Amino acid sequence: MNKAILFLAVLCFTMLSCTKEKTDYEAEIDTVVPESQEFKEAYTIHSDGYKISIEALNGTLYTGYNQLRFKVSNSQTNQPVKASAITFLPIMTSGDGTQVSCPHQYHTSLTPDGTSFLGYSVFTEESTAGRNWHLYLSFTIAEQIHSIKQDISIQKQPNKNLNMTTFIGKDDEQYFIALAAPQKPKVGENELIAGIYKFNRPTSPPVMSFPDPLQFSYTAVEDYILQLDPRMPEPSMGNHSSPNNKDLTKHTDGLYHGLVNYTMTGNWTLNFILLNQNGRILKGTQVPTDFTPGVVGVKSDLHIDILF
Prior knowledge:
β1 and β2 form a beta hairpin. The chain is built from one helix and 19 strands. The protein is mostly beta strands. It starts with a helix and ends with a strand. Strands 10, 11, 12, 13, 14, 15, 16, 17, 18 and 19 form a ten-stranded antiparallel sheet that branches. Strands 1-2-3-7-6 form a five-stranded antiparallel sheet, with no helix packed on it. It is globular, with a radius of gyration of 23 Å. Helix content is 9%, strand content 44%. It has two domains: 39-152, Immunoglobulin-like (Sandwich); 159-307, Immunoglobulin-like (Sandwich), CATH 2.60.40.
């Protein structure tokens, strides 16, 4: 009798726990932001008679991967001005004075129509009272370089499908993986896009006044492979995976593309193994393939959790 009562008590507790988790999970799903591909102005800077517009998707800078667009115009006439180059360097200053950057495209790319410059930045921390971000930007017009410093605010990314992670690889280098798409997954096969970057550790002291971009340099890694094993780690899901997934490889846009098949909505873990161009594992572990209902699924030591 005592064993029966104990069993019923445990069962009741388990059902209540699952109900609470499901309720919280449903609430989280409702907060996922909609997909957006429209650039909007995030900041406008006036300097030396010019107006520099910094644009981002939704007009907001978030933690994780951000596409950026820069435009230069005349401050008085608002007419476009032809710049020959634009560089930018994001710097975060902590409360103790430590200054770090994040993966970014220092030398932006001119669009084919010549109207704007494109780049990206992977902001690793949101702005707080103890973490302040600044953008050091320069633009060149008629062979004259103009330099600007702009305070910027980085918001926490509300879309969990765009999470990121940073880690030290087995080669003792610092890496960053940031999800760039899909912003709004669907049940079924989705193209999975991510940026993979490495910090270029400085090998010499600064050669110019602060900030020296060589001290804050990052590169998008080449010819790596990001192996993918997506799973639903919730106890009720048994850590099951899905068929037809494809590992991520580098494409001409500088990002890594693969395929993830979501069989249903819910909490998913993207388990990764990162291999360099020589096939060496830099980070990541194989996860068990067993179906384990009632048990939280084991995750790779390199993973990103998402929710849709």
